[in-house]
Write a structure and sequence with these properties.
Chain lengths: ~250, ~300
């Protein structure tokens, strides 16, 4: 079996007395689209923060293509190809949409042609997410859903991108934008075999995108499998709906 | 007595000094927008710039090469800032990238005291001047001090260069991105901690340039940065913290207010007119002319 693109080994995070992530073993194959679901407070965002270096873990290890990235700064992890989006879209409000997309591209590639190549790529992406007519507007003019689109597109601008962690990209996004976003993810997955880890509550999205779902409850992995498999599990249903239902 | 000539002269003098004040304010606002803290030791970097100018002009290049001396002085202050940031400022922000500014701000106050007393210990309390060979310039029918006018032109050039760097270079794009969202920039692959060093260096370098340019006008002594720092902060409040056009326009407004006030009311209260302007702006627009209301997350 080939080396997984992304792997965590007994990844643990403690905030004071609260165990947010408990010895999570997790592995994503190259080209896979993995879903992570779990009730609120299950530790999904913490897990993404640990993998991308935004918070240091208490213990455990994160490997990208078999190489530990635990000691690296977030920008170094991003440059190695493990890219993320945030639940609350962190776009650069006063920068134009084009500059928002150019920044991650130029952070990795400099040189005489880098700017033109980046600009071409940025315009293509803006076309794809149907924001091309706003290319020269500041990003703060965008709606919440458009911001999410822009932020996710910015990740695709990173030349090194091999594994993309999307933290709740579909929350509060209208159905049209949701479709655009799923098309974009599937296209990049097929064309460049980029792996994805999608954290979401939207079961319809999960069913369409993800080959395999990991269920996180109270900081632990409790189930892994297809959506139908994990949905049939009594403990998963109980965690979502309360004890009375299962 | 009010005459149109006198008014024009006061106006021009105000714009000239205002642009130089704006250099200082630009430095403060730029450091704030990237490193997210107020640097209270700006005046001391101004002071270092003026001493550097004095030393380079008197011992190395002579007064005719004042412009090269000013560039070298500003570069050395940039270098000092670039070296100081990772040693003194960065360790104050512990625990990740999203940071608290209180400790760092206090450290800059300590740095202010250290540098000022160091200067007194080394050079004594004497006022020095690198001297100038520039004669008075006629602006239309009106005379203006040559050194002041030269400082004005250099300040304009520095501001233009700063603008080009920020708008047209990759470094500028990264700096603008980091000023909007540090975490966002970092997860885009930008080394934000390296940017902090550069931003701090550029910010204090602007103060150093102002010090070097004004060395023949306002003299060189250990506490010469106090007045310009005060003005820098007045400008920031008038223009709005974090706004670069705000710093420029407020700088010119402050210069004009001081100049008109001391010409037509009383020159003894020169420093008070700026504060009156400040109070008026605070009463009408508390976030400054170009300030944005900050939402705390």
């Amino acid at each position: 079996m080939s080396v997984p693109i992304l792997e965590t080994r007994k990844l643990t995070k403690r905030f004071g007395g609260f165990l947010a992530n408990s010895e999570i073993d997790f592995s994503v194959a190259g080209g896979e689209i993995r879903g992570i679901i779990g009730p609120n407070g299950a530790g999904k965002s913490t897990f993404v923060n640990l993998m991308t270096g935004v918070h240091p873990p208490t213990s455990g290890d994160v490997l990208l293509s078999g190489e530990s990235v635990i000691a690296l700064e977030p920008h170094e992890i991003a440059r190695k190809g493990l890219v993320r989006s945030f639940q609350v879209a962190r776009v650069f409000g006063n920068l134009t949409l084009l500059d928002n997309l150019l920044a991650p591209h130029l952070a990795q590639t400099l040189g005489a042609t880098a700017h033109r190549v980046g600009l071409d790529k940025a315009r293509r992406l803006l076309d794809l997410i149907k924001l091309d007519r706003l290319a020269d507007h500041p990003a703060k003019a965008l709606s919440g859903g458009q911001r999410v689109l822009l932020q996710v597109a910015a990740g695709f601008m990173m030349p090194s991108l091999t594994c993309y962690l999307l933290d709740e990209p579909f929350a509060g996004v209208n159905p049209v934008i949701k479709d655009t976003l799923m098309d974009l993810i599937e296209a990049e997955n097929r064309a460049k075999s980029v792996s994805f880890v999608v954290v979401s509550h939207e079961m319809a999205v999960m069913r369409r995108l993800c080959h395999k779902i990991t269920v996180l409850i109270e900081g632990k992995v409790v189930a892994e499998g297809s959506l139908d498999e994990v949905a049939a599990r009594q403990d998963v249903v109980r965690a979502y709906l309360g004890k009375g239902y299962a | 007595m009010f005459t149109p000539e006198l008014f024009a002269q006061a106006l021009i003098a105000g714009v000239v000094i205002g642009v130089i004040y704006a250099l200082m304010a630009l430095g403060i606002t730029f450091i704030y927008s990237i490193v997210k803290m107020i640097n209270w030791s700006m005046g001391e970097f101004y002071m270092i710039g003026s001493y550097a100018q004095y030393l380079i002009v008197v011992y190395l290049l002579g007064p005719n090469m004042w412009w090269l001396a000013a560039v070298l002085s500003a570069l050395s202050v940039f270098l000092i800032g670039w070296l100081v940031e990772p040693v003194l400022i960065k360790p104050m922000f512990t625990g990740g990238i999203e940071r608290k500014d209180d400790y760092a701000t206090v450290v800059t106050i300590a740095l202010l005291l250290l540098l000022r007393n160091l200067a007194t210990a080394i050079s004594g309390p004497y006022q020095r001047t690198p001297g100038t060979t520039l004669g008075a310039v006629m602006l239309g029918p009106l005379p203006e001090s040559g050194a002041r006018f030269a400082a004005f032109l250099c300040a304009l050039a520095a501001i233009a260069l700063f603008y080009v760097l920020l708008r047209l270079s990759w470094l500028g794009l990264a700096l603008r991105a980091a000023s909007q969202s540090r975490v966002g920039a970092q997860t885009s692959g930008v080394d934000v901690l390296a940017l902090d060093k550069i931003a701090f260096g550029i910010g204090v370098g602007l103060a150093g340039l102002a010090g070097a340019l004004l060395a023949p006008v306002f003299m060189v002594y250990p506490t010469n940065g106090v007045v310009t720092t005060t003005k820098g902060f007045e400008i920031i409040v008038i223009g709005g913290l974090g706004s670069i056009p705000g710093a420029l326009i407020a700088g010119v407004l402050l210069g004009i207010a001081e100049s008109l006030g001391s010409t037509f009311i009383a020159s003894a209260y020169q420093n008070a007119y700026g504060f009156l302007l400040l109070l008026a702006v605070l009463a009408l627009r508390p976030s400054g002319l170009f300030g944005e209301r900050v939402r705390q997350a």
